[in-house]
Write a structure and sequence with these properties.
Its EC number is 2.7.8.8, 4.1.1.15. The protein is an alpha/beta fold. Among the domains are: about 45 residues, no CATH class; about 45 residues, no CATH class; about 200 residues, Aspartate Aminotransferase, domain 2 (3-Layer(aba) Sandwich); about 120 residues, Alpha-Beta Complex (Aspartate Aminotransferase, domain 1), CATH 3.90.1150; about 90 residues, no CATH class; about 110 residues, no CATH class; about 50 residues, no CATH class. It is built from 30 helices and 17 strands. The strands form five sheets. A seven-stranded mixed β-sheet has the order 1-7-6-5-4-2-3, with helices on both faces. Strands 10-11-15-14 form a four-stranded antiparallel β-sheet. A hairpin with a 6-residue loop joins strand 8 and strand 9. The radius of gyration is 38 Å and the shape is elongated.
């Protein structure tokens, strides 16, 4: 038995020695005079059956550097049997490793990658025929730019260009003669777009120089839905970006909006022919007509580059009658991605110019590095010939009919998938019937029991996460700026996406919806709403501070070394400085001496009381700046809006105090602020003389001069400009404008200020001053909303002028939100919008009545302060109110924002003060005509509104069915009873 054990031990020793020699073999000693296997000497060769230790040394089982973390090392399941310790992930190893080991390591690393066929986010081709892959394999080592060494690659490239030029109707290859296309292959459409846009820029610069005009301020006009490479081009090559914003229901640019952004410095138009967001085609034909119109009217040289990354390969086969290419006179260049619907592996792009005249000479370079004089018009130099050869294979293999057959199949799948998603009842389709084969969709809003629209407790991102668990990759994303509130998903249909896969995907989507409908999943935005409802404005604990993390994202982006001090809290410092100020101004250290004279003592007591009240107000405002609740506003600094919040509270308390005083006491109280107050005002009658023409004298110049040069003409215009920037909705603005003039007619028997001439009210006020303010305000909103903002800190600006400009821009909004009020989307929404109009009218009317009852002349600063405060708190107030009516899916949690609540409270308390102080001042009875007019208007509104509410909430069983079983049953019972009654 012992001999058996010895034999086993001997065998084990031999195996261990063999393993040591195989896996831990060190290079043998080199014979003298040799160099260890170099070309100059014949060193000893490794024994048969052993690995080449010189090329593939193994590693010591002991870590050479104990400071290296295990997390920084490579590990593998199966390759570990050949290595003693893992290799470094980020440091180039000193020695190599066996090929099989490295192959296994990299294979392990890639195992969790998505299956390309299930990646429905990408437009990129993921399958080609074996013959195409064989051609690619055989040409992996071919550098396309070596035209002298690989002339066949150049010939194949030129043949592909000729085919594309004829496909896109280039005049350079018109007819049956030899083709002379002007274009090149690129690494992808990003490079192709760079070249096309550079062509527009150089073309514009040459035209401007020829006319002797400045060419230093180029701009490029395009839709906000463009690919990020357009933004890169503008930044890389110093071109101003001008974006046509998208909006609800319109996800591409329009010629009308684009026209507003174009000027003589516009190098051209970027037309997106196949949006990444929803696959939609822009109307290139309409943009061409716009270019023709502007060129003829101004003598310009506008051109269009068509970004056909996906659409330029798809449209010629599916929509041959759609005119978008070089058949349009102003289309200068087109790009397409061969690796998308050219059906070639990545990366391959193509760019084509109309003809040689439209390719600026500044983009053409000649070189002979490789032995032959060659032309180069690409951004990069070396590139593989593999995909160019693969593109030529696809052209010959498929032909026109083959591409059309494949794309027709994709369209059939698109329609099938669209119908299946619509049948679920959960989705709204955002992609268009005419476009690239993409299905873009978003969740429908849920109808509540009261008929209002509610958001779901989960969103598109939650659905994408659930589908990822099944292997599907569907991107969830948001629309561009100005429509970022729109979340959507996209399914890109490629050749390897079959009908059976479509059915499997729909089944997995339905299963995911069932799960999400029965489980709570809250995103970050919803968690913020829940936290705001649960905790209000209190500071959260360390367990829940992450809830508010994104609320400070915008502020964090403002931080840079030069402004960090302004954005970091200084609460203790502020407290210390405040206490020092109180100690100094209150004379704490001084003895309390009262004057012997009674009059002087009374005067001192009055002065101390007044100073104490002001100090109390300032302490509260200081507290508001440091500890007040933050809002949605961050410009120019969040502290400013906390100060505005504090001023609102002080003003509300002030009006509440006046509410409990008599009118005489209130007037005397205001004299403590301004001693000149307390005197009854002479009211101005604007309608005393309404004659524009006096017989025998001619034009009534005095009336016109007094009216047109009145200070309130400018105030009207500026005020309505501010209202337009706040409300951002023309119908609501015009409603307020007309309604206020009607209110003036209603109260003119009480306030002589309201007694105006008809032409003063309706022509000068409404059609001139108000119209100018509204249209300039809306233009300003559209202008700033059309720009995409990427803010950077002041210290990051390259020059002193740029720093000063960035400092001024700090006083502009961080971003411009788009308010989609949807006035007539439901009765409840109409009531919300009427309430906004009512609040604005209250503030307008209260302004005049408060002046009248408190005897405050128009020139007194109190009027200016009040208007400024209202304008400041209206900005965040209207945003908070909009978010309140938009996010009422959280009925049990949502509450009105702080600014909106305070604004309503101030409006109503002001009204109470006016009503109380008006007793005995306005004795004239209401004219019967006014009562009759308002009664008729109320009835004319109430009756249709009641009918609408009844139909919206009661009479429609289908709508009621969407609101819930109880509502549906009620509607059915109501319908049955109506049938019996009939």
């Amino acid at each position: 038995m012992s001999s058996m054990i010895k034999k086993v031990e001997q065998v084990a020793g031999k195996v261990e020695a063999a393993a040591e020699g195989l896996f831990h073999h060190h290079a043998p000693a080199v014979a003298s005079g040799g160099d260890g296997g170099g070309s100059g000497g014949a060193g000893p060769q490794p024994a048969a059956g052993t690995m080449h230790a010189e090329r593939h040394p193994t590693f010591s089982p002991v870590l050479a550097d104990p400071s290296v973390s295990v997390d920084d090392l490579l590990d593998s399941t199966f390759a570990s049997r050949y290595t003693s310790v893992p290799m470094s992930k980020t440091t180039l190893p000193e020695h190599g490793a066996p090929a099989g080991v490295v192959y296994q390591l990299i294979t392990d690393l890639r195992k969790l990658d998505t299956t390309p066929a299930l990646n429905l986010a990408s437009f990129v081709t993921t399958w080609m025929e074996p013959e195409a892959e064989k051609l690619i394999q055989e040409s992996l080592n071919v550098n396309y730019v070596d035209t002298d060494e690989y002339p066949s690659s150049t010939e194949i490239h030129n043949r592909c260009l000729a085919m594309l030029a004829k496909l896109w109707h280039s005049p350079a290859v018109a007819g049956e003669g030899p083709a002379d296309p002007v274009g090149t292959a690129c690494i992808g459409s990003s490079e192709a777009i760079m070249l096309g846009a550079l062509g527009l820029k150089k073309r514009w610069e040459a035209w401007r120089t020829k006319q002797g005009k400045d060419a230093s301020r180029p701009n490029l006009v395009m839709g906000a839905q463009v690919h990020v490479c357009w933004q890169k081009f503008c930044r890389y090559f110093s071109v101003e970006e001008r974006y046509v914003p998208v909006e609800e229901g319109r996800y591409v640019s329009s010629p009308e909006l684009m026209k507003e952004l174009i000027d003589e410095n516009t190098i051209g138009i970027g037309a997106v022919f196949g949006s990444t967001y929803n696959g939609e085609f822009e109307d290139v034909s309409a943009l061409d007509a716009l270019c023709t119109e502007l060129n003829e009217a101004n003598g310009w040289n506008l051109g269009i580059h068509v970004d056909g990354a996906s659409g330029a390969f798809y449209a010629p086969f599916m929509y041959p009658d759609l005119v978008w290419d070089f058949r349009l006179d102003n289309v200068v260049s087109i790009n397409a991605s061969g690796h998308k619907y050219g059906l070639v592996y990545p990366g391959l792009g193509w760019v084509m110019w109309r003809d040689a005249d439209n390719l600026p000479e500044a983009l053409v370079f000649w070189e002979n590095y490789l032995g032959t004089l060659e032309r180069s018009i690409t951004l990069n130099f070396s590139k593989p010939a593999t995909n160019i050869i693969a593109q030529y294979y696809q052209f010959l293999r498929l032909g026109f009919s083959g591409y059309r057959k494949i794309f027709t199949n994709l369209d059939i799948i698109r329609k099938r998938l669209t119908a299946a998603l619509e049948r679920t009842g959960h989705f709204e389709i955002l992609s268009k019937p005419v476009g690239v084969p993409v299905v873009a969709f978003r969740f429908k809003t849920v109808q509540g029991a009261d008929g209002t629209a509610h958001h779901r407790l989960y969103d598109e991102f939650a659905l994408a996460d659930r589908l990822r668990m099944r292997g599907w990759v569907l991107p969830a994303y948001t629309m561009p700026d100005n429509a970022k509130h729109i979340k959507l998903m996209r399914i890109t249909i490629r050749e390897d996406f079959s009908l059976s896969m479509t059915d499997m995907l729909v089944k997995d989507i339905e299963d995911a919806l069932v799960y999400l409908d029965n489980h709570f999943t809250f995103n970050k935005e919803q968690m913020q709403q829940l936290a705001h409802a649960a905790y209000g404005s209190r500071r959260l604990s360390r367990f829940d501070t992450s809830i508010y993390s994104s609320a400070r994202d915008a502020t964090k982006k403002e931080l840079d070394p030069s402004t960090r001090f302004l954005y970091t809290p200084h609460t203790v410092t502020f407290l210390a400085l405040g206490l020092l100020a109180l100690i100094y101004f209150s004379r704490v250290a001084a003895p309390d001496r009262r004057p012997a004279d009674a009059a002087a003592g009374a005067e001192l007591a009055y002065s101390n009381a007044k100073t104490g009240i002001w100090a109390m107000v300032l302490v509260f405002l200081g507290y508001s700046v440091v500890q007040g609740p933050s809002t949605c506003m961050v410009r120019p600094h969040p502290a400013l809006w906390r100060l505005v919040h504090g001023i609102m509270v002080v003003y509300l308390l002030f009006m509440t105090y006046l509410l409990f005083q008599t009118v005489d006491d209130s007037r005397q109280f205001l004299r403590h602020l301004y001693p000149e107050l307390g005197v009854e005002l002479p009211e101005r009658h604007y309608g005393a003389d309404c004659r524009l023409w006096i017989p025998g004298e001619g034009l009534n110049k005095k009336v016109l001069q007094d009216t047109l040069w009145d200070e309130f003409v400018v105030a009207h215009t500026v005020g309505w400009f501010a209202k337009a920037c706040i409300i951002r909705n023309q119908p609501m603005l015009w409603t307020i404008s007309v309604a206020f003039e009607l209110c003036e007619k209603t109260f003119q028997h009480w306030l002589p200020n309201f007694n105006e001439c008809w032409w003063d009210s309706w022509v000068l006020d409404v059609l001139v001053c108000n119209a100018i303010g509204i249209y300039t305000g809306m233009w300003t909103v559209r202008y700033f909303r059309s720009k995409q903002y990427n803010w950077s800190g002041i210290s990051q600006q390259p020059s002193l002028i740029a720093k000063a400009k960035r400092g001024l821009l700090q006083f502009t909004p961080y971003s411009w939100d788009n308010f989609e009020w949807g006035v007539f989307s439901s009765p409840k929404r109409l009531v919300h919008c009427i309430l906004i109009v009512f609040i604005f009218l209250l503030f307008e009317i209260n302004h005049f009545f408060l002046k009248a009852v408190l005897w405050v002349p128009p020139t007194n600063p109190l009027n200016t302060y009040r208007l400024l405060i209202i304008c400041l708190f209206a900005l965040p107030g209207i945003k908070e109110y909009y978010e309140f009516i938009e996010s009422d899916s959280f009925n049990i949690f949502t509450k009105l924002g702080t600014f909106a609540w305070l604004a309503m409270a101030i409006a109503f308390v002001e009204t109470l003060v006016v009503v109380k102080f008006s007793h005995g001042l306005f004795l004239q009875p209401w004219p019967r005509s006014v009562l009759l007019a308002w009664g008729t208007a109320a009835a004319a509104f109430a009756v249709p509104f009641a009918i609408w509410c009844w139909r919206f909430y009661v009479a429609n069983p289908r709508r009621a069915a969407q609101q819930g079983p109880a509502a549906a049953a009620k509607a059915r019972r109501s319908g049955t009873q109506r049938g019996k009654a009939e």
